[in-house]
Amino acid sequence: MTELLTLQEIDRFASRYPEWKLIPGKWMVKKYKFDNYLDGIEFVSEVGQLAESFQHHPHITINYKLVTLKLSTWNVNGLTQADIKMAVLFDEAFSKL
Protein backbone atom coordinates (compact mmCIF):
# COMPACT_ATOMS: atom_id res chain seq x y z
CA MET A 1 0.00 0.00 0.00
CA THR A 2 1.10 3.54 -0.76
CA GLU A 3 1.91 5.58 2.35
CA LEU A 4 1.53 9.30 2.96
CA LEU A 5 4.71 11.31 3.35
CA THR A 6 5.75 12.17 6.88
CA LEU A 7 6.14 15.81 7.89
CA GLN A 8 9.91 15.31 7.88
CA GLU A 9 9.81 13.99 4.29
CA ILE A 10 7.66 16.92 3.20
CA ASP A 11 10.00 19.40 4.91
CA ARG A 12 13.05 17.78 3.28
CA PHE A 13 11.42 18.04 -0.15
CA ALA A 14 10.36 21.64 0.46
CA SER A 15 13.90 22.65 1.44
CA ARG A 16 15.38 21.07 -1.70
CA TYR A 17 12.65 22.26 -4.09
CA PRO A 18 11.33 25.58 -2.72
CA GLU A 19 9.68 26.51 -6.01
CA TRP A 20 7.15 23.71 -5.41
CA LYS A 21 4.44 25.19 -3.22
CA LEU A 22 2.94 22.81 -0.68
CA ILE A 23 -0.73 22.95 0.17
CA PRO A 24 -0.89 21.30 3.60
CA GLY A 25 -1.54 17.61 3.58
CA LYS A 26 -2.79 17.26 0.05
CA TRP A 27 -1.06 19.00 -2.87
CA MET A 28 2.20 20.21 -4.33
CA VAL A 29 1.99 22.87 -7.05
CA LYS A 30 4.50 24.50 -9.38
CA LYS A 31 4.23 27.08 -12.15
CA TYR A 32 6.58 26.91 -15.12
CA LYS A 33 7.08 29.99 -17.30
CA PHE A 34 8.04 29.79 -20.98
CA ASP A 35 9.26 32.27 -23.56
CA ASN A 36 6.53 31.23 -25.96
CA TYR A 37 3.34 29.21 -26.08
CA LEU A 38 4.70 26.26 -28.07
CA ASP A 39 7.55 25.67 -25.61
CA GLY A 40 4.91 25.27 -22.90
CA ILE A 41 2.96 22.86 -25.08
CA GLU A 42 6.12 20.84 -25.74
CA PHE A 43 6.70 20.66 -21.98
CA VAL A 44 3.12 19.52 -21.36
CA SER A 45 3.61 16.77 -23.94
CA GLU A 46 6.73 15.57 -22.10
CA VAL A 47 4.89 15.75 -18.76
CA GLY A 48 2.10 13.64 -20.27
CA GLN A 49 4.54 11.00 -21.48
CA LEU A 50 6.27 10.82 -18.09
CA ALA A 51 2.98 10.71 -16.22
CA GLU A 52 1.64 7.94 -18.41
CA SER A 53 4.82 5.86 -18.09
CA PHE A 54 4.57 5.98 -14.28
CA GLN A 55 0.75 5.94 -14.15
CA HIS A 56 0.80 9.02 -11.92
CA HIS A 57 -0.90 11.99 -13.54
CA PRO A 58 -0.85 15.66 -12.47
CA HIS A 59 -3.50 18.27 -12.93
CA ILE A 60 -2.25 20.48 -15.76
CA THR A 61 -3.34 24.03 -16.46
CA ILE A 62 -2.08 25.96 -19.48
CA ASN A 63 -2.40 29.74 -19.43
CA TYR A 64 -0.64 30.93 -22.58
CA LYS A 65 3.07 30.85 -21.55
CA LEU A 66 2.46 29.59 -18.01
CA VAL A 67 1.98 25.89 -17.21
CA THR A 68 0.85 24.87 -13.73
CA LEU A 69 1.27 21.32 -12.44
CA LYS A 70 -0.56 20.10 -9.35
CA LEU A 71 0.27 16.73 -7.78
CA SER A 72 -1.42 14.49 -5.21
CA THR A 73 -2.03 10.78 -4.77
CA TRP A 74 -5.76 10.16 -4.89
CA ASN A 75 -5.94 6.70 -3.35
CA VAL A 76 -4.43 7.96 -0.07
CA ASN A 77 -5.78 11.52 -0.31
CA GLY A 78 -2.42 13.23 0.07
CA LEU A 79 1.25 13.33 -0.85
CA THR A 80 3.42 10.26 -1.37
CA GLN A 81 6.87 9.34 -2.70
CA ALA A 82 5.24 9.06 -6.15
CA ASP A 83 4.47 12.79 -6.06
CA ILE A 84 8.05 13.64 -5.15
CA LYS A 85 9.38 11.37 -7.88
CA MET A 86 7.15 12.99 -10.50
CA ALA A 87 7.97 16.53 -9.32
CA VAL A 88 11.69 15.82 -9.75
CA LEU A 89 11.13 14.26 -13.18
CA PHE A 90 9.02 17.23 -14.30
CA ASP A 91 11.73 19.66 -13.15
CA GLU A 92 14.34 17.64 -15.07
CA ALA A 93 12.18 17.74 -18.20
CA PHE A 94 11.80 21.52 -17.82
CA SER A 95 15.56 22.00 -17.45
CA LYS A 96 16.14 20.21 -20.77
CA LEU A 97 14.02 22.63 -22.79
Q: What portion of residues is helical?
A: 40-55%
- CATH fold description: Gyrase A, domain 2
> Into how many domains do the coordinates divide?
1
Number of separate helices: 3
Largest sheet: 4 strands, antiparallel
Physical arrangement of strands within the biggest beta sheet? 1-2-4-3
CATH architecture label name: 2-Layer Sandwich
Q: What fraction strand?
A: 15-25%
CATH hierarchy, class: Alpha Beta
Low-confidence stretches: none
Euclidean distance between termini CA atoms? 35 Å
Query: What's the CATH H-level homologous superfamily?
Result: Transcriptional coactivator/pterin dehydratase
Secondary structural class:
alpha+beta
The radius of gyration is: 13 Å
The coarse overall form would be globular
Beta strands, count: 4
Organism: Fictibacillus solisalsi
EC number: 4.2.1.96
GO biological process, one term: tetrahydrobiopterin biosynthetic process
Protein name: 4a-hydroxytetrahydrobiopterin dehydratase
Report on the architecture of this protein.
Keywords: Lyase. Pfam families: Pterin_4a (PF01329). The chain is of the alpha+beta class and 97 residues long. The chain has one domain (7-95): Gyrase A, domain 2, CATH 3.30.1360. It has helices spanning 7-16, 37-54, 81-95; strands at residues 21-23, 27-33, 59-63, 66-71. Strands 1-2-4-3 form a 4-stranded antiparallel β-sheet, with helices on one face. Helix 2 (37-54) runs antiparallel to helix 3. It is globular. The model has no long low-confidence stretch (mean pLDDT 96).
